[in-house]
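Q: Given only this backbone (489 positions), what sequence would you predict?
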C-alpha cells in the first residue's frame, strides 16, 4: 500500500465532502434567522447536501490512486478505502433518518426547525472525521463533537421526556468520556505516542501484558458506551424510551458507524490465550444477554427495542474475537443493522400513531385494520430475529459461521460456547420480536377504541425502508463484494 503525505494547504480538495456539510450547517443556521420555512424544503435541502457529500466522496475515491492511503493534516487523518466505505454507511444512515423524520408524527414539530437539520449534518461531519482519524486526538475530538450533537438532538424537542433522556445521555456520556481520556493518557505514557499506528504496534506487541489491560479497558470504555456494550449499556433503555422513535433509531445506529471501525483497527485481542481476549469474550456474551433477556419483560415497544439494540451490538462484537481480522463480516452486519434500526423505529412511530400508545398490548388489531402496515411489521421483525428471507438472516449467519470457523482453525472450545450462546439468544429474541405482530394480527381491538389510519406516503416510505432487507437476502454478495473491494482499495 502506498502512503501519500500532503501539506495542510494541499489537503483541502480531499475535504470537499466535509466542506459541503459545513456549508449545509451554515445554510441552516442562516435559515433559522428567517420566518418559518416549509418542512419539505428543509428536508430537500438536507437531502441535497447529503447527496453532494456522497458525490464528493465518490469523486475523491475515483481520483485517489488505488491502494494508496492519503495522510491529511500532518498525518492526523488518513483517507483510504475503508474511510470511504464508512462515509457511505454514515451517509446512508443519515439519509434514512432525514427521510423518515419528514413523515414522522413524533418529530413533526422538531423537523420544522432548521437547527435540527444543522445538528444532523454536524453528526455526519463528526462521523466523517472519526472514520478518517489516524491520531488519537483527532479521534477523541471527532467523537466528542458527535456526542455533543447527539445530546443536543435529544434536547431538540420540548417534551419533558426528551429533556430527561438528554440529561441521562449527557451524564453517562460524560462519565464514559472521562474514562476514555484517562485510559488514553495511560496508553500515551506507556507507548510514548498518540498516533494510531504506534498504538497498534504497541498493543500487538504487548497485548499479553496484564499491566496494559487496565489502560486499554479504560480507553475502550468510551467506545463501548457508543456501541452499547456491557457494562456500558445501562443508559440505552431509559434514553431511547423518552426520545421520538426515529431519533432513537438514528442515535442507535449512526454513532456506532463512527466508532466501530476505529475500534476494529485498534482492538488487539482477536487471538485466544490472553486475559484481554477472555474478558472481551465474556463482555460481548453478556451484551447479548443484557439485551435479549430483559426485553422479554418489557411492555413498552420502544423500550423493548432499546434492549434489542444492545443485543445487536453484542452480535456485531463477536467477529472481533476471530483471528485473521476479516472486517467484512461485521461491516455487512453493520449495514443491515443501520437499515433495520431506522426502519424499526420509524415503524414504531407509525404504530404509536395508529394505536395512540407505544404499549405492545395497545397494538391489538392494527395488522387487521391496516394489512400493509402489518405485513411490513412482520417482515421487519423476522429480519431483526435473523430469519430468512431477510438480510437479518445472513447478518447473523455470517457472524456465527465465522465464529465456528475460528473454532475449526484454533480448536478453542470457547468458540463453540459462543456459537451456542448466539443461537440461544436468537431463539429468545424470536419470542419478543413476534409479540408485536402477534398482537397486531391475532388480538382484537375493543370496539370503543378507534385506530388512526397511517398516512399513505408514510407507508410508501416504510416500504422503501424494508425492501433492501429482502433484496440483500437475495443478493448478499452485492454488499459483500462492495465491502471487500473498498477495504482492499
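A: Predicted residues:
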Amino acid at each position: 500500500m502506498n502512503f501519500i503525505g500532503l501539506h495542510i494547504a494541499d489537503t483541502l480538495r480531499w475535504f470537499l465532502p466535509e466542506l459541503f456539510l459545513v456549508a449545509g450547517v451554515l445554510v441552516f443556521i442562516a435559515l433559522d434567522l428567517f420566518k418559518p420555512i416549509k418542512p419539505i424544503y428543509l428536508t430537500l435541502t438536507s437531502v441535497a447536501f447529503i447527496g453532494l457529500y456522497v458525490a464528493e466522496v465518490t469523486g475523491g475515491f475515483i481520483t485517489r490512486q488505488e491502494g494508496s492511503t492519503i495522510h491529511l493534516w500532518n498525518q492526523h487523518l488518513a483517507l483510504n478505502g475503508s474511510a470511504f466505505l464508512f462515509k457511505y454507511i454514515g451517509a446512508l444512515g443519515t439519509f434514512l433518518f432525514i427521510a423518515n423524520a419528514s413523515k414522522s408524527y413524533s418529530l413533526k414539530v422538531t423537523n420544522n426547525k432548521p437547527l435540527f437539520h444543522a445538528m444532523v449534518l454536524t453528526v455526519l461531519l463528526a462521523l466523517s472525521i472519526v472514520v478518517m482519524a489516524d491520531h488519537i486526538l483527532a479521534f477523541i475530538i471527532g467523537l466528542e463533537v458527535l456526542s455533543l450533537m447527539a445530546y443536543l438532538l435529544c434536547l431538540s424537542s420540548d417534551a419533558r421526556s426528551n429533556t430527561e433522556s438528554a440529561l441521562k445521555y449527557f451524564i453517562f456520556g460524560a462519565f464514559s468520556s472521562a474514562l476514555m481520556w484517562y485510559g488514553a493518557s495511560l496508553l500515551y505514557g506507556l507507548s510514548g505516542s498518540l498516533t494510531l499506528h504506534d498504538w497498534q504496534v504497541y498493543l500487538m506487541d504487548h497485548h499479553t501484558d496484564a499491566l496494559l489491560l487496565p489502560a486499554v479497558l479504560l480507553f475502550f470504555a468510551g467506545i463501548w458506551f457508543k456501541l452499547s456494550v456491557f457494562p456500558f449499556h445501562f443508559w440505552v433503555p431509559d434514553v431511547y424510551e423518552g426520545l421520538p422513535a426515529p431519533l432513537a433509531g438514528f442515535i442507535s445506529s449512526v454513532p456506532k458507524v463512527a466508532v466501530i471501525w476505529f475500534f476494529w483497527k485498534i482492538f488487539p485481542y482477536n487471538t485466544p490465550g490472553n486475559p484481554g481476549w477472555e474478558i472481551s469474550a465474556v463482555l460481548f456474551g453478556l451484551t447479548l444477554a443484557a439485551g435479549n433477556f430483559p426485553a422479554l419483560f418489557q411492555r413498552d415497544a420502544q423500550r423493548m427495542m432499546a434492549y434489542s439494540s444492545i443485543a445487536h451490538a453484542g452480535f456485531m462484537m463477536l467477529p472481533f474475537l476471530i483471528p485473521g481480522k476479516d472486517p467484512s463480516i461485521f461491516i455487512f452486519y453493520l449495514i443491515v443493522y443501520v437499515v433495520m434500526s431506522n426502519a424499526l423505529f420509524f415503524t414504531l412511530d407509525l404504530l404509536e400513531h395508529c394505536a395512540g400508545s407505544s404499549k405492545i398490548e395497545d397494538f391489538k388489531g392494527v395488522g387487521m385494520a391496516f394489512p400493509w402496515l402489518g405485513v411490513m411489521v412482520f417482515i421487519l421483525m423476522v429480519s431483526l430475529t435473523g430469519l430468512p428471507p431477510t438480510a437479518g438472516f445472513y447478518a447473523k449467519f455470517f457472524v456465527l459461521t465465522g465464529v465456528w470457523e475460528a473454532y475449526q482453525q484454533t480448536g478453542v472450545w470457547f468458540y463453540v460456547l459462543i456459537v451456542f450462546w448466539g443461537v440461544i439468544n436468537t431463539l429468545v429474541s424470536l419470542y419478543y420480536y413476534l409479540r408485536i405482530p402477534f398482537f397486531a394480527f391475532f388480538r382484537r381491538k375493543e370496539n370503543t377504541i378507534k385506530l388512526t389510519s397511517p398516512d399513505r406516503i408514510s407507508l410508501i416510505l416504510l416500504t422503501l425502508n424494508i425492501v433492501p432487507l429482502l433484496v440483500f437476502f437475495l443478493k448478499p454478495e452485492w454488499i459483500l463484494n462492495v465491502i471487500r473491494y473498498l477495504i482492499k482499495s
